[in-house]
Design brief:
By secondary structure, the chain is of the alpha+beta class. Helix content is 63%, strand content 12%. It has a six-stranded antiparallel sheet. The longest helix is centred in the last third of the chain and has 63 residues.
Length: 576
């Protein structure tokens, strides 16, 4: 590697690492703000928050990588141009393309890394992040008792405190507890003058130590409980019992506050959690479902239209016909395999019987005749069945013709009958039923087509987001050479502008592709293609040392345009 390559690479790698980390942090914070309300007040540990941030940071990599390449290339070549290092390189006879070559190969390597991350790490990170986020959303808020308000977070328990102390978080004043675990209403109440609150056994249980209070219990008791077991009467009555205590302890279960992890298999079907191989399998299954729906429709046409074009053959489209042939051949091969296995077992049994028969014949040959006569067919009573004669065949043909004439007469009588209200209503019901079935089939096919289009978009996005690094480099490096401004000022503004343009075009392309306005390839790859063309134009201007961001360049262009207009006017005013 030459010194010029080391100089350019060292100037690029440092800003790239810095800008990549900054962009990931900004995108991560912007993404986490959407779930801020779901995270606050859940008493989550640092390990849970760390896992969530780490997985979402990997999930942000496909978006952060192209922006980091754009910004770092702008900073690198802006610094080289600002310090006249590009001028010195060109004066040494080294072209701009040769200067861009080491960073270009490094960006190609970054593109391969981005593809690996998009295809392998991002689906796994998305699965872990969104499954963890779902469990966090399902988790109850942390135990927090407020003054003068009932807390009902514990199942079947309502707790109210009148005052909390800032110096001692565990101290409470004026405690009221309603116990609804028996589902009998407010019949068990505990009132205490003061108390202390703790969590024990790794925050699995809540312990309340209460002082100077009463425990009220309302409910039906027996007189036998009051008068003793030897009393003769035992009648049930409503009663109120009050127990006074100087100090007591109450323990409540907090297992419902623990975060339980859901099985990840329920989230694996989402498109952002699939790689290219899995997406190919999903697309194949969806296309097979679409062809199956269409094949079932064509097969059921006879049921929909019982009389219309009854004798005409059903013409299947080529793709549906190929699917039917493939499906029928697969099922036929399975059936053939089953029959071969059955025949093999039957043949083995017959061979065993034949071997046993031959062995028996060798022992007793006189028990088997030399020739076996063909037995004539007999009926259930043992009588011999006579073969059919020609007269019998003529009788059968005449009976069949008579039945056909009777059937035709009945059909003619039905068609000649006058239409009544019940007949019209029955025909309308059949038509509505056919229409409903056709609409259901079409809706099902459209749903499969829409899902297949979404999965196809995700398949192309994995590759297109990686290739965006090259497009961003072709924009950033020539622009930095043209602007000749380093630092984070002008390059940052220019990179943000182009990234917004890229993001908007990408979102619009995906939306149009989902709706079917444009093909999927056009919608996903359109933004990359446009930026690639713009980058080539900027590269052409940078090779020609164009001053696109200087006022003199535009003033000279305006003067040339004015002189051209004046010459056109002079030519037009000259006499013939």
């Amino acid at each position: 590697m030459k010194k010029i390559d080391k100089l350019v690479l060292n100037s690029f790698i440092g800003p790239f690492i810095l800008t990549f980390l900054v962009v990931v942090f900004i995108l991560l914070m912007q993404h986490m703000l959407k779930y801020f309300d779901d995270l606050v007040g859940k008493d989550l540990g640092y390990d849970v928050l760390g896992q969530l941030l780490f997985y979402f940071a990997i999930f942000m990599t496909p978006v952060a990588m192209p922006l980091a390449v754009l910004l770092s290339s702008l900073i690198t070549f802006g610094n080289l141009g600002e310090h006249f290092e590009l001028t010195a390189i060109k004066s040494a006879g080294i072209s701009l393309l040769r200067t861009l070559q080491p960073i270009f190969f490094f960006v190609v390597f970054l593109t391969a890394v981005a593809f690996y991350v998009n295809n392998n790490l991002v689906p796994k990170a998305a699965l872990e992040a969104y499954s963890l986020l779902y469990d966090i959303k399902q988790k109850k808020p942390a135990l927090e008792l407020r003054e003068g308000a009932f807390y009902m977070g514990i199942p079947d328990i309502s707790i109210k405190i009148n005052k909390k102390f800032r110096d001692d978080d565990a101290a409470l004043k004026g405690v009221v507890i309603y116990d609804h675990r028996k589902n009998e209403g407010n019949k068990e109440v505990t009132v205490a003058d003061s108390g202390r609150m703790y969590t024990i056994l790794n925050e699995r249980y809540l312990k309340l130590e209460l002082f100077k209070g009463y425990n009220y219990t309302e409910g039906a008791i027996n007189d036998q409980d009051i008068m003793g077991p030897g009393s003769r009467t035992s009648a049930s009555k409503e009663s109120l019992r009050r127990d006074k205590f100087a100090r007591t302890q109450v323990v409540f279960d907090l297992s419902s506050f623990q975060m339980e992890r859901t099985d990840k298999k329920w989230f694996q079907g989402n498109r952002i959690m699939r790689n290219l191989v899995q997406l190919n399998g999903d697309l194949d299954s969806m296309h097979n479902q679409i062809l199956s729906q269409r094949a079932d429709y064509y097969n059921s046409v006879r049921n929909y239209f019982t009389l219309y074009r009854k004798s005409e053959p059903i013409v299947f489209p080529q793709d549906v016909q190929a699917y039917r042939h493939r499906r029928d051949s697969t099922s036929a091969s399975l059936i053939a395999n089953e029959e071969v296995s059955k025949n093999h077992s039957t043949t083995s049994k017959i061979s065993k019987v034949d071997s046993a028969r031959r062995a028996l014949m060798r022992k007793r040959p006189h028990s088997f005749p030399a020739s076996e006569q063909r037995q004539e067919p007999v009926n259930d009573q043992g009588d011999r069945i006579k073969p059919k004669t020609a007269l019998h065949s003529e009788v059968v043909v005449e009976a069949k013709a008579k039945k056909d004439s009777i059937r035709r007469a009945r059909i003619d009588s039905i068609f000649n009958m006058p239409l009544n209200h019940s007949t019209i209503q029955a025909v309308g019901n059949v038509a509505r039923q056919v229409k409903s079935q056709l609409q259901s089939t079409n809706n099902s096919i459209e749903t499969y087509i829409s899902d297949a289009r979404i999965f196809e978009i995700q398949w192309h996005k994995i590759i297109a987001n990686s290739m965006a690094c090259i497009a961003m480099f072709l924009i950033g490096a020539p622009l930095g050479a043209i602007i000749k401004k380093g630092g984070l000022g002008v390059p940052f503004l220019v990179s943000i502008l182009f990234f917004i343009v890229y993001y908007v075009m990408n979102m619009m392309g995906e939306k149009w592709a989902k709706q079917g306005f444009v093909p999927v390839i056009t919608g996903v790859w359109g933004a990359d293609a446009i930026l690639f063309v713009v980058g080539l134009l900027f590269l052409r201007q940078a090779k020609a040392d164009a001053r696109l961001f200087e006022a003199d360049f535009y003033m000279v262009a305006i003067d040339k345009f004015k002189r051209w207009l004046s010459r056109k006017k002079d030519v037009a005013t000259k006499p013939g």
